Amino acid sequence: MTERSPQDPSSGERAASGPDPDPTRPGLQTFSLEGRRAPGLYLVGWVATVFGGGLLGAEIATGSGGTGGLIVTVAGSLILGLGLVAAAGAQGIERRDREDLRYRGPSPFLVFAAALVLTILATVPLALARADPKTMFTILVAVVLTDAIWIILIGLTVVGVGALRWTEIGPGIVGARPARVVGDVLFGALAALPVILVSGLLGSVLVRVVGVFPENPLPTPSGGGEVLLGLLAAVVIAPIGEEIFYRGFATTAWAQASGPAVAIVKGALFFSVAHILTIGGQSFGEAAGSALVAFLVRLPVGLALGWVFLRRDSLPASIALHATYNGVVVLAAFATA
Length: 337
Hints:
The chain has twelve helices and no strands. The protein is mainly α. It is globular.
């Protein structure tokens, strides 16, 4: 076997300029459209995300307010949301035929970001109608909108590109025997009891240590009708939507990619962080303390939900645990208000 000389036309340029750069290195192909399966969608995702985020950032920085500020906020949110949806779709299409991946769909974080922006945008009409955000009816409408946006986005960007099937996202429902569904629901509801005990004790300790008690996200009901609306939002609609997203989609995706243990931990952290995004306070210290307590209290709940979901291979089981937990917490809060 003979060595090629530096003047060999097939090797001379490499000898002069050094080895070819690794095309997998970050930054080299991030913005390239060459060889992509959905170049138009990818381009729209980047451009719209950067432009929409820039509009929102400019409005937040200037704080112009008024009609003009509202128009810029709505336009920026719409463009940003569409950009994130396009990016999630492009990522799913790009990964569809990747044989080196066990989960071949968009990142749950990316889909969540798109859903978050679109949910905020969907509640703008409520703000324009001057609906009180602290009434049970307004909260119920917001929860319904959030669930609908999650399900639509999962359908478009995950199921639509073939990454997961609805039967994988909602195991234990389609084709399941009624006795199996009832058993899963009872298992989940009973599993909620030790979780309630653990999170309650943990919350009591944390409140004493941190000195901050997180505000109840549901307002104090003024009558029986508001109690029913609050229970409908917290015990029925929210658990169904959240379990479809956090367990059916995200935990299933991570279980395929990294195994059940990683999926349970990752899903619990994701679930807990998502529930503290809107927590505020009179000062930074108060807000940070409330967020810390709320995060740590929800962590055992998220771990239990992920374990029950994968252990039973059943979405009804995790929905039942979630609904039971929320029901006890909400009724206790209403009773002591």
